[in-house]
Structure formats: structure tokens, C-alpha cells
Prior knowledge:
By secondary structure, the protein is mainly alpha-helical. It contains 13 helices and three strands; from the N terminus they run H-H-H-H-H-H-H-E-E-E-H-H-H-H-H-H. Strands 1-2-3 form a three-stranded antiparallel sheet. Helix 2 packs across helix 4, helix 3 runs antiparallel to helix 4 (63-82) and helix 6 packs across helix 11. The longest helix is centred in the last third of the chain and has 22 residues, at 263-284.
Amino acid sequence: MLKExxxxxxxxxxxxxxxxxxxxxxxxxxxxxxxxxxxxxETFTREDIVGFIEMSKDSQYSMTSICxxxxxxxxxxxxxxxxxxxxDDPAETIxxxxxxxSIPKALSxxxxxxxLSAKVSGRMVVRDRAMLExxxxxxxxxxxxxxxxxxxxxxxxxxLTITGKGSKDRIxxxxxxxxxxxxxxxxxxxxxxxxxxxSPYLFLNYKGEIMTRQRFWQTLKxxxxxxxxxxxxxxxxxxxxxxxxxxGADLRSVQKMLGHSDISTTQIYTKITTDRIKTEYKKxxxxx
Length: 288
């Protein structure tokens, strides 16, 4: 039934490849949970869905991941009804948590410097540092970072063109450190990785092919461990937004750079900035 569901997503709903892959991973996890509780696709209930969500919370999944789990399960349940596997929709009354319940975690500027200067050895360090510098410089999503194409990087003007969610293009700036790191990587290691081949993608793996998000996450964890900081795949994107707002950047400008279609998504970062101001006030004001 999973194959039929993925085909439905692709053909009937026109879902992107990354979306289909995410749904597959989510439903595989949900089915494993049901199997452990001796439930089937025909018999699981709303309580089973709630139990899976609670288990995910206990497993320290982020609110973003949990929201995606819920979205995937809701879509899957609708599919089961369409295919007449079930007569009822057990996910019908399951709602997504409010966005404001989830405040992204951002590192301090000092912690970002620790991460970017972490002592990690190995052949791929030049590539890795270029990726980290670009993430913090431009606030990209990890999927966008993996998909950066060489001919969309404007070295002279200092910006790159990104195709984000909904296949929408946006132009984002790059700082000098990111530009220089990319130039060093392209002049040496990238040529070695290609081994005479060609690739439109900027960041490549050992085989000279586009990197996967899973591989990048493993790389990021290694750097976080070396620097002694806790982070998620999107931590540097959160840092980019939070540090810009801390410095007085306009909310609308940050929204455009992040590629948010709804400014309410960007406003989450103002909550972080406000909390920091309150903390500093309580710490240093003599009458606080």
C-alpha cells in the first residue's frame, strides 16, 4: 500500500521528489509503530496516531518534524479512505500545533565562530567549511544548499540565485568569507572530486556527485561535536535570521532572504530577539 500511496502523491497531487521521500520516511516510521502495537491499516485509531506523536515528542523530535509527521499521516489517512481501505478517517480531527509553540534555537555569535573554526581533519574540510560559511552567510535551507548550482553563483556581485519552496527563485547575498571559501574549494578539491567529469552542482561528495541531506547532517554533527555546540540541520539558518534582526535588519528584508511566503513565519524570530532583550535587561539593569 505504501507504493500506491507514493504513486498517488506523485501523479495525483504532483508532489516534489523531496516531499515524496519525506512522506515515505514518515509513513514507514508510523507503520513500524503500528506493527509494534499489533495494529493494521484497517484497525488503527485516532489514539494510535496520538500515541505515535507523543512517542515522537519523547524521542526529542523537533516541532517541525512532528508537524510533518502529522501532515504525512493525515494525507495517508485520506488516501486510505479514497482507496476504500477504510471507511473512516482517524486523523480527521488531528490538528497541527501552533507555529508559535515552536521557537527555533539559534546559537550566539561566539558559538557560531566556534563552529566555523572547529578543528576537524580530513580531505573534505575545505568543502565543509565552504558549506558552513555559506549557510550562515545566506540563510539557506539544507535542501537549497545541496542544490546550489555553480552557474547561479555570481562571484563578482556577491550573491547567488536559489530555487526554494514552490520552485520560486530568490536572490540572496553572500559575505566575503563565504565567497573566498567557495573559491578555494572550487580551485582545488572540487576539481579533484570531479575527476574529469562535469556536474552543475557546487557541493559534491567523494564520487563527484551531488551530496545528500543525510550526508550533510552527519558532517554537521561532526562539526558540532568538535565545537562543543548543539545544533540541528537548520541551526545556521536560524542564526542568520536571528542575528540579522538583532542587528536591526528590517523584518520584510529578512523574510525575502529566507524565502518565506508568509511574514508570520519570519516573525517567530522576533520572539527570540525579544526574549534575549528581556534576559539582558534582567541581567544588567540594577532595578530589574
